[in-house]
Amino acid sequence: MSELFDAVDALLASRATLPPPAERKRLRSAHGLTIDEVATALKVRRATVSGWESGKTEPRPPERDAYARLLDRLAELYPAPAAAAVPAADAAVPAAFTAVPVPAEARPLSTGPAPEAADMTETENTQTPAPVAAAPRPARTTGPTSSTSRRPGAKKAAPAGTPAGGSDPRFENGPLAVVDVEDGKVLAYCVGGLVLDVPAKSLPSLVDWTLKEAKLGQPKLSGPGRPADPLLVLTKAALERYGLPVAFTEEEKNAGRIPEGHKVIKQLTRADWKLTKRGFGPWARIYRPAKGSDRQCVQLCIPSWNALDPRFWGAAAQLPPAELARVLGVYASRVMTPRGSTAVTGLELMTALHPPTHAVRDEETGVLRQAETKTPGSLGKDPVDCAPCEAPDGHPVLNKLDLPRFHVRGPAEKLFEEAYDWARPMTDAECTLRYLVGLDVNMAFAAGANGLTVGLGEPTHVTNPVFDPKLPGSWLVDLSHVDLSKVKVGKEWVELDGSLLPSPFTPKGDRPTGPAWYATPTVAYAQEIGYDVTPIEAWVRYENGRYLDGWYQRLRDAYLATMTDLGVDADLSPADFLAAMDGYKERDPELGIVVSAIKATVKGGLGKLRERPRGEGWRPGERWRALERPTWRPDIRAAVISRTRINLHRKIVKHAAFTGQYPIAILSDCVVYAAAGPSPLDFLPYREGKPLPGGFKLGINPGLVKHEGTQTVLWGEEVRERFNAPELNLARSIKDGTVTDVDNGE
Fold first, then answer.
1. Does residue 506 sit in helix, strand or coil?
2. Staple partner for 626: which of 484, 611, 684, 693, CB 3.0–4.6 Å?
3. Which whole number is the average pLDDT over 430-455?
């Protein structure tokens, strides 16, 4: 009998207890882990872990025990929230923005940088975020109340996605406030129409009030991360009230800050407040050194000092306080609280979703302490040098190469992955058509980042490597033998007119003439269209992951939710979509500003991955400030741009093989075709409402296309003749037809 009992005990031990599927996903997400990271650790496929989290399959030994151990440890760090009734006013708050209460002793320590340091086949997403209510306009109210209560008549309902009262009591008044002065009284306009009285008489007391009474801020975006600091936007009237200049002098504009001897800075210093290295500028951070997890930091945004660049924020700086609070509040709830320009915020969003370090529990004492090693899936807290071929001119890693003075590196020495800027003369047949129609890829660079495996650590040099399309890196390879007149599309070879196509391997569309450096997606595409590749050498990154997946998903959801508010959703037919896109920003100009800012966050964030020196007396060969960031990663930028360009070329080839139509011009994510009619539906091969598989598809999701603009063929020929430029890039002017100077590629 004892043998039977032993057998039963062994059987029970072989089936480790696991939480329900939904809880498994919650625990993984709470720690900021991706499905790929869990799959790699457990040595199973990504689809296997996905099946465990959806409940479609259950893990078996020996992976089950390891998976159970992982979930048990995560459950210690992130206990399940106690069931609680949700107030009716907060019932509409999306679950994604509802804070999970964590006991104080189990909360991760602050993991972000100290304030002073804060300076393949394309996957077209066809899923939309959960339906959200349109972001309401702020209510106009009268008569102030106390500093911690609403003004009479103010609506508490916040814009869709904004954390409302009850989601996190620390931030019940939203992520930010626009501070203004009316009739001699200082008021703070928060999201959702809430207006607070501000009793502060000086800037130091305003900072104190913000941290102690205002209840502003935003919950963290990932388990190991930290909450966002409160943001105060100061109007011109508020600047005058607190002794700050309404506008910069020319000298201050050049310096990007007010002088260190300014009286307000002296007030802050006397009150033991500090400023970051960038000083008191358009985006100032005022803080006291953190003590443990107690972080005291407030950020200021000053529109009249050009904090809200009109290139990306439109007329936001001119909006009344309540309307500006709405615009910034919707952006903060859907993307994150702005940390600076849209470019800076795009970069900070990457770090917020993948904090460099995390808290771990000491097994002996049970106390949570900050880990020295980096969080899995993050870039860590220490910068890494790029490979010599990935370095921009003037980078210190090039000093070791002993290059001749004034030497200009060619394709065999320098990775040059950039977006398309290509055009060609029109054929006689194209000149007989009436129109030029431009298509624009929605959120093209975000779509290029989706599902992309990038390096997370240092590069390794390899000679005579075997190309691996799954291994991120830079490869020196000769692709001059690739002939676009005969390529593989899917499993079949097709014949095309290669002279009418841009090369997929160069931004200018020229055919390579010899060995050159390429990112992994570019070389993989050469294999995809049927050609062998034999790299000469490579710099590869064996530590890698899908670092940008969460970043893409957050920005995609923000874009789609805002476009839905503007009347453009993902379920429209092609004709209805084109109609809905016509003048969509005019339906709600404030949300139109948010859409533009989201797009700028994508492009700017990727651009920051290879930020160049910004004055500061820099000389070639010296390090510059951006190199000290772990997010200075030109290889990641190159991989995203490479994949984006390849995604577009793949569509162009599919379209050419099926229709015999070829592009006339391409600029970044815009492509121009000659057509008999003025609409994209006059030349896109839709059949019974269905697009060409793998080709251009009209729709709002990232990776799909919208109508950029239409001009006549006569217009195109006239401007090219006027400037004596048969290859002038018409994609640059297809939107409004304005051509003011010779196209110089800038």
1. coil
2. 611
3. 97
